[in-house]
Each structure stands twice: as structure tokens, then as C-alpha cells.
Amino acid sequence: MKKLSILILIAVLVSILSAGSVLAEDDLIKIGILQLVEHPALDAAYQGFVDALTEAGYTDGVNIEIDYQNAQADQSNLMTISERFVKNKVDLILAIATPAAQAVASATTDIPILFTAVTDPVTARLVESNEVPGLNVTGTTDAGPIDKQIALLLEMFPEFKKLGIIYNSSEINSEVQAKQAEELAAELGISVEFGTITSVNDIEQVAISMAGKIDGFYAPTDNTIASAMPNLVKVAEEKKLPIIGSEPGMVEGGALATVGIDYYKLGFQTGKMAERILKGESIPAEMAVEALTDVDVVLNQDTAKAIGFEFPQSVRDRATRIIGE
């Protein structure tokens, strides 16, 4: 009888402890993170977001539960994951890149949504305005200084006449930047040749067809291009053509240079926005879309050598970072 009583007591204690563990898990704040595809810029934005939450006292497995998902640039994956987040009743969603943000925004009008790495939230129909989003969606824009990027190109190549802009025609983000770059180039007397792609498999063939007509490439913050920079770099180096990237990750991947934002800092800034939402200090509808104000000049010395180019001293002096030195 004594042994039986002890066994019953142990069983009761285990039951109580198990119930407590389940309760603790139920009490965790659930955060769903949907990333369009894996590449350095988006990966950095994700890490910055998580680090900002950690700094604010939100740690995965302690008081929050992060469900991180990568859609691998597949539209059906984007929709399936978005619907799962809604079904699981997550408390907050982070969408990394425009297609991811559009997918989660179409799946719920109730759950707070933050986006990052989105160039034009208004054109993408994610917010009513950048100043007053008005819905359950807000976040940070990665709109880069295209004017400074083209000015850098001309500083390095004063005789530059024709720019090749290659982008994914199905990404609204990319289309907006391509048009802006064309307008800015025209003001500086540079003509533009467009090359459109629909997948990474198109990049090399399209780049080769453009190479004989241009003096260099411009790559906007296009997720398809960014995820497969080696394909574009291969053609550019063979033809001794420069690539002006729109963010540092592209230069790390082989583009010649950029004036761009730091995506880790952008993600961190988005995490600070999440902190305000989680603490009940604000709601997305009333939180203006934010942007980074500081930019970095990043150069790739290895690429310069590969295409037989030497950076002017004026450019080197302004560089935040020179890869390959």
C-alpha cells in the first residue's frame, strides 16, 4: 500500500508538472517569420530583427516562440505558410521582402504584420500611405539611393553611355526601381537597355544577350538577382563589364560597388517596431513606415581586378568597406 501511494503521488506530480509546461508554452508570444528566399540581404534582415527582440528582452523559447519559414521563392509556399500562421493564431508576423508581405497581408486583416526589405509599400498595396498605414500592416522600406548609385557609376566611369538594367518582371519592387533608375539615368545622359527575367535560370542567357549592347549592369534590390548573383557576375567578368549593385550583399556576391543600406540595421529597426507592438505601445495602422537614413559605400577589389579596373582614389576614400583588401 505504501509503494502504491508513492507511485500515485509521483504520477500526480508528473501530471501537474506536465500541465505547467503546457501552460508555459501556451503563454509564449508566437511570432511567425516568413522570408521569401535565402540570400545575404534578407538573411541579415532576419538576424537583425531577432537580435533587436533579444535586446528588448524577448528570447525564443523563453517568452516568445519564433516560427521561421523560408518560402524558397515559391508563390504556393508563400500562401501555404501565411495560411498556417493564421490558423496557428500567431501574435505577430514578420514578412521579409515584398512577395512575402503581400502573401501574409492577403491572409489576415487582424494579426499585426511587420514587413522589411520592401521598396514601395504603397505601390505594393500593403499600406494606404507611408505616413499613416491605416491597416494591420507596417514596417521598414529598403528604398535605396538610386541617384547616388548612378552618380557613383559615373564617377568611376566618366565615359559611361548605356546601362543594362536586369530584373524580375514579376516583382513589383524591382519594376519600380527599374523605372526610377531609367529616369535618373536619362537625366545624366545615359540610355538604358532592359533585361527581364522570371527565374534564376534566365539570368545568364539574358545577361549574355545584353552584354554587347551596354557598358555595364545595374542590379536593383531584386530578390531573384540577389539570390543568384554568381550567374550575373560570371557574364559580367567574362565581358569585362561592371555591375553596380543596390545593396552591400550584392557586392559581397561579386558586384563591383554600391551605395546602399545595411540590411542587418534595417531588420534591427523593424525589431524595435515589433517591441512597441508587443508592449502594446502602438498598432501598425498608426505606425509610419520607417527607413534607414545612413548608407554605406562598399567596393569589391577582387571584382575590380577581374574586369581590369582600378578604383579612383576619391571613391576609395569614401568607402565604408573594401572587399578583398
Secondary-structure map:
Layout: H1 2-27, E1 29-35, H2 40-55, E2 64-70, H3 75-87, E3 92-96, H4 98-107, E4 113-118, E5 137-141, H5 146-156, E6 162-168, H6 172-187, E7 191-197, H7 203-211, E8 216-219, H8 223-227, H9 229-238, E9 243-245, H10 248-252, E10 257-260, H11 263-278, E11 290-291, E12 296-300, H12 301-306, H13 313-318, E13 321-323
Parallel strand pairs: 1-2, 1-3, 3-4, 4-5, 5-11, 6-7, 6-8, 8-9, 12-13
Antiparallel strand pairs: 10-12
Helix pairs in contact: 2-11, 3-4, 7-9
List keywords for this structure.
325 residues; alpha/beta; Rossmann fold; 2 domains; four-stranded parallel sheet; 46% helix
What does this 3D model show about the protein?
It is a single chain. By secondary structure, this protein is α/β, with parallel strands linked by helices. The protein contains 13 helices and 13 strands. It folds into two domains: 29-142 and 263-291, Response regulator (Rossmann fold, 3-Layer(aba) Sandwich); 146-260 and 295-323, Response regulator (Rossmann fold, 3-Layer(aba) Sandwich). The strands form three sheets. It has a six-stranded parallel β-sheet with strand order 2-1-3-4-5-11, sandwiched between helices. A four-stranded parallel β-sheet has the order 7-6-8-9, with helices on both faces. A three-stranded mixed β-sheet has the order 10-12-13. α2 runs parallel beside α11, α3 (75-87) crosses α4 (98-107) and α7 (203-211) packs parallel to α9. The longest helix is centred in the first third of the chain and has 26 residues, at 2-27. The radius of gyration is 23 Å and the shape is elongated. The termini are far apart.
